[in-house]
Write a structure and sequence with these properties.
Blueprint (H helix, E strand, L loop, with lengths): L1 H23 L4 E2 L5 H6 L8 E8 L10 E10 L5 E8 L2 H25 L6 H11 L3 H8 L10 E6 L11 E5 L16
Helix pairs in contact: 3-4
């Protein structure tokens, strides 16, 4: 249960940091490239992604007393000048970087299918992905937001194991941070995909 709570905390932090980046910027540094096999996957889309990282400390008993966290943002620039993201928050640098890159790769694949289909999207997250990827200027806009901005980790307002039909095989835990907006709020102009 502790591991599930820690992962849920990381998910909540990831959403919070993406919101923070979009609203006010977030100072991040360019990350070392991950395993070449992952980077090679992007050749099918005609480019190589840029990966950024932020190391920070936060305290959460569910994470076994560990205080060091990593946030990774992988950005792929589309031909239109749009951006396709992937992100991850983790206790481990390498695992977080790889998850962010795989998420970006999956978003690239999804965008390719959306572009071929020519629209008709209903899900807000798919609509956001399509907008940010197909509209020029978003890559540069996000890259500029990586130059400055700090943050404080907000307090946890909700942290609970959720019982359900998946018990006892799977543990589901959810965490909400103070002031966090729901994932679906904010319309299309919100950089959470």
């Amino acid at each position: 249960e502790g591991l599930a709570a820690c992962h849920a905390f990381c998910e909540a932090l990831e959403r919070f940091l993406l919101d923070r980046l979009w609203a006010a910027g977030l100072k991040m540094k360019r990350s070392a490239d991950a395993d070449g096999q992952i980077s090679d996957l992007f050749k099918a889309f005609g480019g190589v992604p840029a990966v950024y990282e932020l190391a920070f400390e936060a305290e959460l008993p569910a994470c076994g007393g560990r205080r060091g966290f990593f946030f990774f943002l992988c950005l792929f620039k589309t031909e239109a000048g749009g951006v396709i993201p992937g992100s991850a928050c983790s206790l481990e640098a390498e695992g977080g970087r790889e998850r962010a890159m795989f998420e970006c790769y999956n978003h690239c694949r999804a965008f390719r299918l959306m572009a071929k289909a020519g629209g008709g999207l209903e899900n807000i997250l798919e609509k956001r992905l399509y907008k940010f990827a197909s509209s020029g200027g978003y890559f540069d806009k996000i890259a500029a937001k990586l130059e400055a901005g700090g943050f404080e980790v907000p307090a946890v307002s909700f942290s609970k194991r959720l019982p359900g039909p998946w018990d006892p095989d799977i543990t589901v835990h959810r965490v909400l941070l103070e002031g966090a907006a729901p994932l679906n709020d904010g319309g299309l102009e919100r950089f959470i995909i």
